[in-house]
Write a structure and sequence with these properties.
With 435 residues, the chain is mainly β. 1% of the residues lie in helices and 43% in strands. The chain starts with 7 loop residues before the first strand and ends with a strand.
Protein backbone atom coordinates (compact mmCIF):
# COMPACT_ATOMS: atom_id res chain seq x y z
CA UNK A 1 0.00 0.00 0.00
CA UNK A 2 1.21 3.49 -0.82
CA UNK A 3 2.92 5.05 2.20
CA UNK A 4 4.44 8.41 2.95
CA UNK A 5 1.24 10.46 3.07
CA UNK A 6 1.57 13.41 5.38
CA UNK A 7 -1.19 13.90 7.94
CA UNK A 8 -2.26 16.80 10.09
CA UNK A 9 -2.60 15.20 13.52
CA UNK A 10 -2.77 17.14 16.74
CA UNK A 11 -4.62 17.38 20.04
CA UNK A 12 -6.42 20.69 20.36
CA UNK A 13 -6.75 20.81 24.13
CA UNK A 14 -7.38 24.53 24.00
CA UNK A 15 -10.14 24.42 21.40
CA UNK A 16 -13.65 24.54 22.82
CA UNK A 17 -16.24 21.84 22.89
CA UNK A 18 -19.40 22.28 24.86
CA UNK A 19 -20.98 20.55 27.75
CA UNK A 20 -23.99 22.89 27.65
CA UNK A 21 -27.57 21.77 27.19
CA UNK A 22 -28.96 22.34 23.69
CA UNK A 23 -32.17 24.07 24.67
CA UNK A 24 -30.51 26.30 27.26
CA UNK A 25 -27.25 27.46 25.69
CA UNK A 26 -27.04 29.12 22.25
CA UNK A 27 -24.31 27.89 19.89
CA UNK A 28 -22.40 31.18 20.21
CA UNK A 29 -22.02 30.92 24.02
CA UNK A 30 -18.56 30.33 25.54
CA UNK A 31 -17.72 26.65 25.58
CA UNK A 32 -15.60 24.61 28.05
CA UNK A 33 -12.58 22.80 26.67
CA UNK A 34 -12.09 19.09 26.09
CA UNK A 35 -9.25 17.48 24.08
CA UNK A 36 -10.04 16.76 20.45
CA UNK A 37 -7.71 14.88 18.09
CA UNK A 38 -7.91 16.16 14.52
CA UNK A 39 -6.94 14.22 11.39
CA UNK A 40 -6.55 15.49 7.84
CA UNK A 41 -4.72 14.89 4.60
CA UNK A 42 -3.28 18.33 3.71
CA UNK A 43 -4.49 20.14 0.60
CA UNK A 44 -7.51 17.85 0.33
CA UNK A 45 -11.17 18.04 1.20
CA UNK A 46 -11.57 15.65 4.14
CA UNK A 47 -15.08 14.31 4.67
CA UNK A 48 -17.52 11.49 5.55
CA UNK A 49 -15.70 9.82 8.46
CA UNK A 50 -16.49 6.37 9.83
CA UNK A 51 -15.29 4.92 13.09
CA UNK A 52 -14.78 1.46 14.62
CA UNK A 53 -13.30 0.25 17.89
CA UNK A 54 -12.30 -3.10 19.39
CA UNK A 55 -10.96 -2.76 22.90
CA UNK A 56 -8.40 0.05 22.85
CA UNK A 57 -7.80 -0.32 19.09
CA UNK A 58 -9.61 2.37 17.07
CA UNK A 59 -9.76 2.90 13.31
CA UNK A 60 -11.01 6.05 11.58
CA UNK A 61 -11.59 6.01 7.83
CA UNK A 62 -12.53 9.01 5.70
CA UNK A 63 -12.54 10.28 2.13
CA UNK A 64 -9.97 12.86 1.00
CA UNK A 65 -10.49 14.65 -2.34
CA UNK A 66 -8.33 16.87 -4.53
CA UNK A 67 -8.77 17.76 -8.20
CA UNK A 68 -11.78 15.46 -8.54
CA UNK A 69 -9.77 12.48 -7.34
CA UNK A 70 -10.90 10.82 -4.11
CA UNK A 71 -9.13 8.25 -1.96
CA UNK A 72 -10.03 6.54 1.32
CA UNK A 73 -7.56 6.85 4.20
CA UNK A 74 -7.45 5.05 7.54
CA UNK A 75 -5.66 6.10 10.72
CA UNK A 76 -5.48 3.85 13.78
CA UNK A 77 -5.06 4.31 17.50
CA UNK A 78 -3.93 1.76 20.05
CA UNK A 79 -4.76 3.86 23.12
CA UNK A 80 -8.51 4.22 22.80
CA UNK A 81 -8.43 7.20 20.43
CA UNK A 82 -6.18 9.48 22.46
CA UNK A 83 -3.52 9.49 19.72
CA UNK A 84 -3.32 8.23 16.14
CA UNK A 85 -0.62 7.17 13.74
CA UNK A 86 -0.27 8.46 10.21
CA UNK A 87 -2.85 7.44 7.58
CA UNK A 88 -2.64 4.69 5.00
CA UNK A 89 -4.44 4.87 1.69
CA UNK A 90 -6.99 2.06 1.54
CA UNK A 91 -8.04 1.86 -2.13
CA UNK A 92 -5.59 0.01 -4.34
CA UNK A 93 -6.35 2.07 -7.48
CA UNK A 94 -5.70 5.76 -6.70
CA UNK A 95 -8.47 8.28 -7.19
CA UNK A 96 -11.31 5.79 -7.67
CA UNK A 97 -13.38 6.27 -4.49
CA UNK A 98 -16.86 7.79 -4.76
CA UNK A 99 -17.96 9.74 -1.70
CA UNK A 100 -20.66 12.32 -1.07
CA UNK A 101 -22.92 13.33 1.83
CA UNK A 102 -23.85 10.02 3.52
CA UNK A 103 -22.01 7.76 1.07
CA UNK A 104 -18.42 7.33 2.20
CA UNK A 105 -16.00 4.55 3.12
CA UNK A 106 -16.93 2.38 6.11
CA UNK A 107 -14.70 0.47 8.53
CA UNK A 108 -15.17 -2.47 10.90
CA UNK A 109 -12.80 -4.46 13.11
CA UNK A 110 -12.66 -8.23 13.43
CA UNK A 111 -10.72 -10.56 15.70
CA UNK A 112 -6.94 -10.66 15.16
CA UNK A 113 -5.32 -13.44 13.21
CA UNK A 114 -3.55 -16.21 15.09
CA UNK A 115 -0.37 -14.91 16.63
CA UNK A 116 -1.32 -11.25 16.10
CA UNK A 117 -2.60 -8.64 18.54
CA UNK A 118 -4.12 -6.03 16.22
CA UNK A 119 -7.64 -6.63 14.90
CA UNK A 120 -8.22 -7.26 11.21
CA UNK A 121 -9.29 -3.91 9.69
CA UNK A 122 -11.99 -4.22 7.02
CA UNK A 123 -12.98 -1.28 4.81
CA UNK A 124 -15.70 -1.00 2.17
CA UNK A 125 -16.33 1.86 -0.28
CA UNK A 126 -18.18 2.76 -3.46
CA UNK A 127 -15.90 2.91 -6.48
CA UNK A 128 -15.90 4.57 -9.88
CA UNK A 129 -13.86 2.76 -12.50
CA UNK A 130 -15.85 4.13 -14.44
CA UNK A 131 -18.55 1.57 -13.58
CA UNK A 132 -20.18 1.88 -10.18
CA UNK A 133 -18.74 -0.73 -7.80
CA UNK A 134 -18.73 -1.79 -4.15
CA UNK A 135 -15.18 -2.61 -3.05
CA UNK A 136 -13.91 -4.39 0.08
CA UNK A 137 -10.41 -4.84 1.43
CA UNK A 138 -8.72 -6.00 4.63
CA UNK A 139 -5.59 -5.09 6.54
CA UNK A 140 -3.98 -7.90 8.52
CA UNK A 141 -1.25 -5.72 10.03
CA UNK A 142 -3.21 -3.10 11.95
CA UNK A 143 -3.98 -0.74 9.07
CA UNK A 144 -0.46 -0.39 7.69
CA UNK A 145 -1.12 -2.17 4.40
CA UNK A 146 -4.24 -3.48 2.69
CA UNK A 147 -5.02 -6.44 0.44
CA UNK A 148 -6.07 -6.01 -3.16
CA UNK A 149 -9.76 -5.08 -3.10
CA UNK A 150 -12.57 -7.34 -4.27
CA UNK A 151 -15.83 -6.38 -6.00
CA UNK A 152 -19.02 -7.30 -4.18
CA UNK A 153 -21.78 -6.24 -6.56
CA UNK A 154 -21.03 -8.81 -9.28
CA UNK A 155 -19.03 -8.52 -12.47
CA UNK A 156 -21.85 -7.44 -14.78
CA UNK A 157 -24.12 -5.38 -12.52
CA UNK A 158 -25.34 -2.34 -14.45
CA UNK A 159 -26.60 0.89 -12.95
CA UNK A 160 -25.54 2.98 -9.99
CA UNK A 161 -24.98 1.91 -6.37
CA UNK A 162 -23.58 3.20 -3.10
CA UNK A 163 -24.45 4.11 0.52
CA UNK A 164 -22.86 0.94 1.82
CA UNK A 165 -22.69 -0.12 5.46
CA UNK A 166 -20.42 -2.76 6.94
CA UNK A 167 -20.38 -5.08 9.91
CA UNK A 168 -17.90 -7.74 11.02
CA UNK A 169 -18.99 -10.27 13.63
CA UNK A 170 -16.89 -11.89 16.36
CA UNK A 171 -15.91 -14.73 14.02
CA UNK A 172 -14.50 -12.24 11.52
CA UNK A 173 -17.31 -12.66 8.97
CA UNK A 174 -17.91 -9.44 7.03
CA UNK A 175 -21.36 -8.42 5.77
CA UNK A 176 -22.07 -5.43 3.55
CA UNK A 177 -25.38 -3.91 2.50
CA UNK A 178 -25.85 -1.13 -0.02
CA UNK A 179 -28.44 0.61 -2.20
CA UNK A 180 -28.49 -0.66 -5.77
CA UNK A 181 -30.08 0.70 -8.95
CA UNK A 182 -29.33 -2.19 -11.30
CA UNK A 183 -33.00 -2.96 -11.98
CA UNK A 184 -33.94 0.64 -12.80
CA UNK A 185 -31.22 1.17 -15.40
CA UNK A 186 -33.16 -0.70 -18.12
CA UNK A 187 -36.39 1.32 -17.76
CA UNK A 188 -37.23 4.48 -19.73
CA UNK A 189 -35.96 7.46 -17.76
CA UNK A 190 -32.96 5.55 -16.45
CA UNK A 191 -32.26 5.70 -12.75
CA UNK A 192 -34.87 8.24 -11.67
CA UNK A 193 -36.08 7.14 -8.27
CA UNK A 194 -38.48 9.85 -7.16
CA UNK A 195 -41.62 8.21 -8.48
CA UNK A 196 -44.63 6.77 -6.71
CA UNK A 197 -44.55 5.01 -3.40
CA UNK A 198 -44.06 1.31 -2.91
CA UNK A 199 -45.19 -1.31 -0.49
CA UNK A 200 -43.07 -3.38 1.84
CA UNK A 201 -44.08 -6.56 0.04
CA UNK A 202 -41.41 -9.23 -0.53
CA UNK A 203 -39.23 -8.97 -3.62
CA UNK A 204 -40.91 -10.30 -6.77
CA UNK A 205 -39.27 -12.77 -9.11
CA UNK A 206 -40.99 -11.34 -12.21
CA UNK A 207 -40.48 -7.82 -13.51
CA UNK A 208 -43.48 -5.45 -13.49
CA UNK A 209 -44.61 -3.41 -16.47
CA UNK A 210 -43.08 0.06 -16.77
CA UNK A 211 -46.55 1.63 -16.55
CA UNK A 212 -46.96 0.38 -12.99
CA UNK A 213 -45.53 3.37 -11.09
CA UNK A 214 -45.64 1.65 -7.72
CA UNK A 215 -43.88 -1.48 -8.95
CA UNK A 216 -41.34 0.58 -10.88
CA UNK A 217 -40.35 2.43 -7.74
CA UNK A 218 -39.82 -0.97 -6.13
CA UNK A 219 -36.89 -1.61 -8.43
CA UNK A 220 -34.39 0.26 -6.25
CA UNK A 221 -33.04 -2.48 -4.01
CA UNK A 222 -31.15 -3.13 -0.81
CA UNK A 223 -28.41 -5.63 -1.65
CA UNK A 224 -26.20 -7.67 0.62
CA UNK A 225 -22.94 -9.58 0.22
CA UNK A 226 -21.34 -11.79 2.84
CA UNK A 227 -18.38 -14.12 2.73
CA UNK A 228 -17.60 -15.31 -0.77
CA UNK A 229 -21.25 -15.67 -1.80
CA UNK A 230 -22.87 -13.60 -4.55
CA UNK A 231 -24.66 -10.31 -3.90
CA UNK A 232 -28.37 -10.72 -3.37
CA UNK A 233 -31.36 -8.44 -2.96
CA UNK A 234 -32.92 -8.52 0.50
CA UNK A 235 -35.45 -5.68 0.10
CA UNK A 236 -36.86 -3.51 -2.66
CA UNK A 237 -38.36 -0.03 -2.73
CA UNK A 238 -35.57 1.91 -1.02
CA UNK A 239 -35.14 5.66 -0.85
CA UNK A 240 -32.02 5.79 -2.93
CA UNK A 241 -29.78 8.52 -1.44
CA UNK A 242 -30.05 7.88 2.31
CA UNK A 243 -27.43 5.96 4.27
CA UNK A 244 -27.96 2.35 5.29
CA UNK A 245 -27.00 0.94 8.67
CA UNK A 246 -26.36 -2.56 9.94
CA UNK A 247 -25.20 -4.43 13.03
CA UNK A 248 -24.73 -7.98 14.29
CA UNK A 249 -25.15 -9.52 17.72
CA UNK A 250 -24.85 -12.81 19.58
CA UNK A 251 -26.45 -15.95 18.20
CA UNK A 252 -26.21 -14.97 14.53
CA UNK A 253 -28.56 -11.98 14.78
CA UNK A 254 -28.05 -9.43 11.97
CA UNK A 255 -30.09 -6.28 11.36
CA UNK A 256 -30.10 -3.88 8.42
CA UNK A 257 -31.99 -0.59 8.28
CA UNK A 258 -32.72 1.97 5.54
CA UNK A 259 -35.23 4.62 4.47
CA UNK A 260 -38.05 2.97 2.53
CA UNK A 261 -40.53 4.43 0.03
CA UNK A 262 -43.99 3.38 1.18
CA UNK A 263 -47.37 3.96 -0.48
CA UNK A 264 -48.12 7.64 -0.89
CA UNK A 265 -44.40 8.41 -1.43
CA UNK A 266 -43.87 8.33 2.34
CA UNK A 267 -40.19 8.06 3.25
CA UNK A 268 -40.23 6.04 6.48
CA UNK A 269 -37.55 3.93 8.16
CA UNK A 270 -37.61 0.14 7.84
CA UNK A 271 -35.43 -2.71 9.04
CA UNK A 272 -35.05 -6.44 8.44
CA UNK A 273 -33.74 -9.02 10.89
CA UNK A 274 -31.89 -12.29 10.41
CA UNK A 275 -31.38 -14.91 13.11
CA UNK A 276 -29.11 -17.17 11.07
CA UNK A 277 -26.11 -14.96 10.38
CA UNK A 278 -27.65 -13.17 7.40
CA UNK A 279 -28.54 -16.22 5.35
CA UNK A 280 -32.27 -15.40 5.50
CA UNK A 281 -34.22 -12.34 6.61
CA UNK A 282 -37.76 -11.80 7.83
CA UNK A 283 -40.25 -9.36 6.34
CA UNK A 284 -39.41 -5.64 6.61
CA UNK A 285 -40.62 -3.82 9.71
CA UNK A 286 -41.87 -0.25 9.33
CA UNK A 287 -40.48 1.53 12.35
CA UNK A 288 -42.87 4.48 12.47
CA UNK A 289 -45.51 6.06 10.24
CA UNK A 290 -44.07 9.55 10.20
CA UNK A 291 -46.09 10.93 7.30
CA UNK A 292 -43.14 12.54 5.53
CA UNK A 293 -43.92 12.62 1.81
CA UNK A 294 -41.16 14.03 -0.34
CA UNK A 295 -40.58 13.75 -4.09
CA UNK A 296 -36.88 13.26 -3.71
CA UNK A 297 -34.30 11.84 -1.35
CA UNK A 298 -33.45 13.70 1.87
CA UNK A 299 -29.96 12.16 2.08
CA UNK A 300 -30.53 11.52 5.76
CA UNK A 301 -30.81 7.89 6.82
CA UNK A 302 -31.14 5.80 9.98
CA UNK A 303 -28.66 4.43 12.50
CA UNK A 304 -29.12 1.00 14.10
CA UNK A 305 -27.54 -0.98 16.94
CA UNK A 306 -28.11 -4.41 18.52
CA UNK A 307 -27.73 -5.10 22.22
CA UNK A 308 -26.70 -8.39 23.84
CA UNK A 309 -30.34 -9.52 24.11
CA UNK A 310 -30.96 -9.09 20.39
CA UNK A 311 -33.08 -5.96 20.83
CA UNK A 312 -32.90 -3.47 17.96
CA UNK A 313 -32.21 0.21 18.72
CA UNK A 314 -32.86 2.80 16.01
CA UNK A 315 -32.40 6.55 15.57
CA UNK A 316 -33.57 8.45 12.52
CA UNK A 317 -34.52 11.92 11.27
CA UNK A 318 -37.90 12.97 9.91
CA UNK A 319 -39.79 16.20 9.35
CA UNK A 320 -42.32 17.29 11.97
CA UNK A 321 -45.18 19.11 10.23
CA UNK A 322 -46.78 22.32 11.43
CA UNK A 323 -46.83 26.06 10.75
CA UNK A 324 -43.01 25.97 10.93
CA UNK A 325 -41.93 22.44 9.95
CA UNK A 326 -38.60 21.21 11.28
CA UNK A 327 -36.57 18.03 11.04
CA UNK A 328 -36.09 16.14 14.30
CA UNK A 329 -34.25 13.00 15.44
CA UNK A 330 -36.35 10.17 16.90
CA UNK A 331 -35.60 6.91 18.71
CA UNK A 332 -37.42 3.58 18.92
CA UNK A 333 -36.52 0.04 19.93
CA UNK A 334 -37.77 -3.41 18.98
CA UNK A 335 -37.21 -5.70 21.96
CA UNK A 336 -38.46 -8.74 20.07
CA UNK A 337 -36.70 -7.74 16.86
CA UNK A 338 -40.03 -7.30 15.09
CA UNK A 339 -42.35 -4.75 16.72
CA UNK A 340 -40.99 -1.23 17.16
CA UNK A 341 -41.92 0.87 20.17
CA UNK A 342 -43.63 4.26 19.72
CA UNK A 343 -41.16 6.84 18.54
CA UNK A 344 -39.55 9.25 21.03
CA UNK A 345 -38.28 12.66 19.94
CA UNK A 346 -34.73 13.29 21.15
CA UNK A 347 -33.84 16.67 19.64
CA UNK A 348 -35.33 19.95 20.89
CA UNK A 349 -38.65 20.96 19.40
CA UNK A 350 -38.41 23.56 16.65
CA UNK A 351 -34.71 23.03 15.88
CA UNK A 352 -33.82 21.31 12.61
CA UNK A 353 -31.20 18.57 13.05
CA UNK A 354 -29.92 15.71 10.90
CA UNK A 355 -27.58 12.73 10.39
CA UNK A 356 -27.99 10.70 13.59
CA UNK A 357 -25.56 8.10 14.89
CA UNK A 358 -26.24 5.58 17.66
CA UNK A 359 -23.88 3.74 20.02
CA UNK A 360 -24.66 1.42 22.93
CA UNK A 361 -22.64 2.17 26.06
CA UNK A 362 -21.13 -0.56 28.22
CA UNK A 363 -24.30 -0.63 30.33
CA UNK A 364 -26.39 -1.28 27.19
CA UNK A 365 -28.01 2.15 27.18
CA UNK A 366 -28.10 4.05 23.87
CA UNK A 367 -26.32 7.29 23.07
CA UNK A 368 -27.52 9.21 20.02
CA UNK A 369 -25.63 12.03 18.30
CA UNK A 370 -26.68 14.37 15.47
CA UNK A 371 -25.66 17.60 13.77
CA UNK A 372 -27.48 20.91 13.72
CA UNK A 373 -28.42 23.06 10.74
CA UNK A 374 -28.08 26.68 9.69
CA UNK A 375 -26.26 28.70 12.32
CA UNK A 376 -26.16 25.67 14.62
CA UNK A 377 -23.77 23.45 12.66
CA UNK A 378 -22.57 21.59 15.75
CA UNK A 379 -22.54 18.04 17.12
CA UNK A 380 -24.92 17.12 19.94
CA UNK A 381 -25.40 13.89 21.90
CA UNK A 382 -28.05 12.62 24.28
CA UNK A 383 -27.76 9.61 26.60
CA UNK A 384 -30.44 7.05 27.34
CA UNK A 385 -31.37 6.45 30.97
CA UNK A 386 -32.55 3.38 32.87
CA UNK A 387 -36.10 4.74 33.04
CA UNK A 388 -36.33 4.56 29.24
CA UNK A 389 -36.05 8.29 28.70
CA UNK A 390 -33.13 10.39 27.47
CA UNK A 391 -31.18 13.14 29.16
CA UNK A 392 -30.83 16.67 27.78
CA UNK A 393 -28.61 16.99 24.68
CA UNK A 394 -24.98 17.95 25.29
CA UNK A 395 -22.80 19.73 22.78
CA UNK A 396 -19.67 17.84 21.67
CA UNK A 397 -18.06 20.10 19.09
CA UNK A 398 -16.40 23.50 19.36
CA UNK A 399 -16.97 26.82 17.64
CA UNK A 400 -16.28 25.68 14.06
CA UNK A 401 -18.73 24.14 11.60
CA UNK A 402 -19.21 20.47 12.52
CA UNK A 403 -21.34 17.77 10.86
CA UNK A 404 -21.85 14.04 10.21
CA UNK A 405 -21.10 12.44 13.60
CA UNK A 406 -20.19 8.77 14.01
CA UNK A 407 -19.52 6.85 17.20
CA UNK A 408 -17.96 3.66 18.59
CA UNK A 409 -17.48 2.11 22.03
CA UNK A 410 -13.93 1.42 23.18
CA UNK A 411 -12.78 -0.54 26.21
CA UNK A 412 -13.00 2.55 28.43
CA UNK A 413 -15.68 4.79 26.97
CA UNK A 414 -17.51 6.00 23.87
CA UNK A 415 -15.62 7.79 21.13
CA UNK A 416 -17.14 10.20 18.61
CA UNK A 417 -15.83 11.53 15.30
CA UNK A 418 -17.19 14.12 12.89
CA UNK A 419 -16.25 16.43 10.05
CA UNK A 420 -15.11 19.98 10.76
CA UNK A 421 -14.75 22.90 8.38
CA UNK A 422 -13.11 26.21 9.15
CA UNK A 423 -12.89 28.42 6.10
CA UNK A 424 -11.47 26.26 3.32
CA UNK A 425 -9.82 23.85 5.78
CA UNK A 426 -11.52 20.51 6.48
CA UNK A 427 -10.57 17.82 8.96
CA UNK A 428 -11.87 14.87 10.94
CA UNK A 429 -12.29 15.47 14.67
CA UNK A 430 -12.18 12.66 17.23
CA UNK A 431 -13.27 13.18 20.85
CA UNK A 432 -14.04 11.21 24.00
CA UNK A 433 -16.47 13.31 26.02
CA UNK A 434 -17.18 12.52 29.67
CA UNK A 435 -20.53 10.84 30.21
Amino acid sequence: MTRGWRVLLFVAAGLPAALGVFAQRPPSAPLPTVPIVRLAVPDRMNAVPALAARGAFVAVVWAATAENQTDAFVAVSRDGGRSFGGPSRVNDVPGTVRAATESGPRVALGPPLAGRTDPVVTVVWAGREPASTIRLTRSRDGGRTFDASTRLEGEHAVGNRGWASLDVDDRGAARVVWLDHRRTAAWPGGEHHHGGGVTSAPVRDTEPTPTDAVARAQLSGLYMASGSGPAREIARGVCYCCKTSMASGPGGVVVASWRHVFDGNLRDIAFVLSRDGGRTFGAPTRVSQDGWAIDGCPEDGPAVALDTTGAVHLAWPTVVPGPAPFKAVFYASARDGVHASPRMQLSPRGRTVAHPSIVLAADGLPLVAWDGAGTDRAIWVTAGMKNGRFGPPTRLSGEVDASYPVGARTSDGVLWAWREQEGAATRIAVSRPPR
